[in-house]
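Exercise 3.2. Students should predict the tertiary structure of the chain below and write it as structure tokens, then compare their answer with the key that follows.

Predict this chain's 3D structure.
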Amino acid sequence: MYQILKPFYPIIHMNIQEKRINNIAIVLVEGNIALTSSIELRNFVKPIVENNDVSDLLMNFEKVSTIDSSGVGVIVQIYKSLSENKKRLIITNLNEKCYDVFLLTRLNKILTIIKTESEGLDLLK
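Answer key:
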């Protein structure tokens, strides 16, 4: 008989990069935003959100395949932290599957979702 001591969650790593244009942080996310990778995303973005030199955050999801409820939770946490500090969050380049998640949760009514990174940057300038 087997005894499960703790649940098994596969570690799914993401590729996350940051670039800056003036005081706007741009986070490029690649991979699936799921249980373990959403924690990785949160830990990556937290110091950016807390940085006083950053006025706004643009998250480019061009290379994100899927997002689950834990990923949505992290996005809401990021949005809340930014809003409390009078900073804006722009999400760009969502594929249809990811956009549907934002539609179903009605987050498209709260978050600013733009088609392209360049349109998002124009909005922040």
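Discussion points: Residues 41 and 69 are 14 Å apart (CA to CA). DSSP finds four helices and five strands in the chain.
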